[in-house]
Amino acid sequence: MAAATEQIQTNSKLRFFESRTLRRFVRHRLAITGLVMIVGIGILCVVGPWLLPHDMLDINIRDRFSPPLTDTFIMGTDEMGRDLAARLFMAGRVSLMVGIAAMILSTLIGTVIGLVAGYFGKVTGTVLMRLTDSFLCFPQIFLLLTLAAFLEPNAFMITLIIAVTSWMEVARIVSAEIRSLRERDFITAARISGASHRWIMFRELLPNTIGPIIVAATLTIAKAILLEAYVSFLGYGIQPPMPSWGNMLNNAQQFLDTAPWLAIIPGIAITAAVTSFNFIGDGLRDALDARSDAQ
Amino acid sequence: MTKVLTVEDLTISFGTGDSELTVVHKVNFTLEAGKTLALVGESGSGKSVTSLGIMRLLSPSQSRVQGKIVLHSDEDIDLLSLSESRMRRLRGDRIAMIFQEPLTSLNPVYTIGDQIIEAIRSHRRMSKRNARQRAIELIDQVGIPDAEHRLGTYPHELSGGMRQRIMIAIALALEPDILIADEPTTALDVTVQAQILELLNRLQEETGMAMLFITHDFGVVADIADRTIVMYAGEMVEEGSTETVLERPLMPYTSGLMRAVPKLETAGLKEGDLESIEGFVPHPDNRPTGCSFHPRCTHALAGTCDVPPVPIEDAGDGHLVRCKRWKTLQEAAE
């Protein structure tokens, strides 16, 4: 008996997703393209380095600047004769990890600040949102570079400073969303049934803002990958010999006329990853917006 | 007759200093177990604020609640001097509330089963399985068929009447002493309205809870209330058993309100035949001197009605009225 009800409950939850959000997402061609690309890039980055015959650190002086498709070097080699494919995939691990970790961290910070600011409003809300605004006043790149110049440049630090400089958007989205939600009757109903502030914030309000948060988070990954590339390109980010898409570009710029693939290939990787995440974000935005169902 | 709640000289004001506005002025009543008290009045007469005041849900930085609200539980508890955390434990447990908009009163992201179960488990230590069993009982009790399957539905899959039934189920989950119903049927169809009232009457008989029923509709009052208080501009203007108030209203405002209810007999009559009370409830910062109703009252007498104070008087049998001319008017009517 209990199992039967359990079944019905899961069915109903499934039905909810099947009928609305998921179907709208699947219908979104660009989003699905993006998703397929990201999954592809992800698999290549995880599995690729094991399948390739060369280690990313192997130096083959004789094979320097081999163009793509020479021998076993499918993407060619760099100025020290290291296999570009192996480096690209390893770099992808680093760049994607930094992107995703920075997204998680900045979304957490942004969500909590937005939630508290939106729910309490008044002095607390004003102080927190003006703090958010003041962070937005600084051009993000300079803030990032300044911090990067002072701190030890490694993957962890880069993740941290990207997160610290990109939580503001999520905070604003969440606080705006919460401010409208907290006036709704089910919040009054929750207070009437004796719910605490924490309960209302995290159990009643937060699940209602999950849609916009997911969308913002997806777009934040794209932004974080770009930021990491930017900082590493300028030499303040991930330090060689550990590769990242950004510092591969940094090395490549001096050989742009003689070995253009050194810049083009990581460039394509960054573009592909960033656009894919943006497509997924757009798809999610449309899918989670119930209004598009009415059409 | 067991008293469950005593409200004494409840005065609620908003703002501070010079801009302080008194919205509810010296309201007194008691709630008895198994009985229903109706608070009747137009929009702006302070009836909803009264209920929020009892629940202590008005922001303390913006409002001031004075007087005494005593809950007669195992011991007498003065709600106004209770700490916020103890008050929170009482809300939903000893005093529950349902209100006007069943369409938006349920959280859209949880199933109704989850919401009922959470309501129980937030106040009682109970296993999920037992809480679930109780939820099924409750859904059954509020007259929704196929209770077990309903647990997994989301609010948007239910009609307005169904959602109000679920709200009632949540409110009754912990067998409260008091149910405050703030216009629970206003947003519903007339037929559904009748069903909900019937349901509330039946549940009251089953559980013996006291009900504070807030409405502007005398039709509803006649169906549900044992005693009735008519409020105007934040003051009680008439109180009595529902029968006396409905059959022998002493305050011109009460009779005016009753004549303004559309009835079947008035159907087909020309426009203007349905009576309305001219004007609006006065804004709290612009209260007329003397009887606050006198500018809209057809029986108002200059020199009498606009001179304070206007005390509330006993017209016999606990029928209270705040009108200086009720005796004259009653004699004229007879």
TrEMBL record, chain A:
Keyword annotations for this protein, in alphabetical order, are: Cell membrane, Membrane, Peptide transport, Protein transport, Transmembrane, Transmembrane helix, Transport
Compartment(s) of residence: Cell membrane
Q: Which Pfam families match?
A: BPD_transp_1, OppC_N
Q: Does the keyword Repeat apply?
A: no
Which InterPro entries does the protein's record reference? BP-dependent_transpt_permease (IPR050366), MetI-like (IPR000515), MetI-like_sf (IPR035906), OppC_N (IPR025966)
Q: Can you give the residue ranges of the ABC transmembrane type-1 domain? A: 92-281
Its Gene Ontology biological processes?
peptide transport; protein transport; transmembrane transport
One GO term describing the cellular component: plasma membrane
How does the record classify its membrane topology?
Multi-pass membrane protein
Q: Where are the transmembrane segments?
A: 30-52, 96-120, 127-150, 156-174, 213-238, 258-281
Q: Which family is this sequence assigned to?
A: Belongs to the binding-protein-dependent transport system permease family.
Q: What is this protein called?
A: Oligopeptide transport system permease protein OppC
Query: Which organism was this protein described from?
Result: Salipiger mucosus DSM 16094
Q: What is the lineage of its organism?
A: Bacteria, Pseudomonadati, Pseudomonadota, Alphaproteobacteria, Rhodobacterales
UniProtKB/TrEMBL annotation, chain B:
Entries under SUPFAM superfamilies matching the protein? P-loop containing nucleoside triphosphate hydrolases
For this record, the Gene Ontology CC terms, alphabetical, are: plasma membrane
Name the UniProt key words of this record, in alphabetical order. ATP-binding, Cell inner membrane, Cell membrane, Membrane, Nucleotide-binding, Translocase, Transport
Subcellular localization, per the record? Cell inner membrane
InterPro entries this protein is in? AAA+_ATPase (IPR003593), ABC_Ni/Peptide_Import (IPR050388), ABC_transporter-like_ATP-bd (IPR003439), ABC_transporter-like_CS (IPR017871), Oligopep_ABC_C (IPR013563), P-loop_NTPase (IPR027417)
Membrane-crossing segments per the record:
none
Q: Quick one: where is this thing mainly located?
A: membrane
- Supply one GO BP term: peptide transport
Q: Which GO terms of the molecular function aspect are on file?
A: ATP binding; ATP hydrolysis activity
Which membrane topology describes this protein? Peripheral membrane protein
**PROSITE patterns, sorted:** ABC_TRANSPORTER_1 (PS00211), ABC_TRANSPORTER_2 (PS50893)
Residues covered by the ABC transporter domain:
5-258
What the record says about family reads: Belongs to the ABC transporter superfamily.
Instruction: Report what the protein is called.
Output: Oligopeptide transport ATP-binding protein OppD
Question: What lineage is this protein's organism placed in?
Answer: Bacteria, Pseudomonadati, Pseudomonadota, Alphaproteobacteria, Rhodobacterales
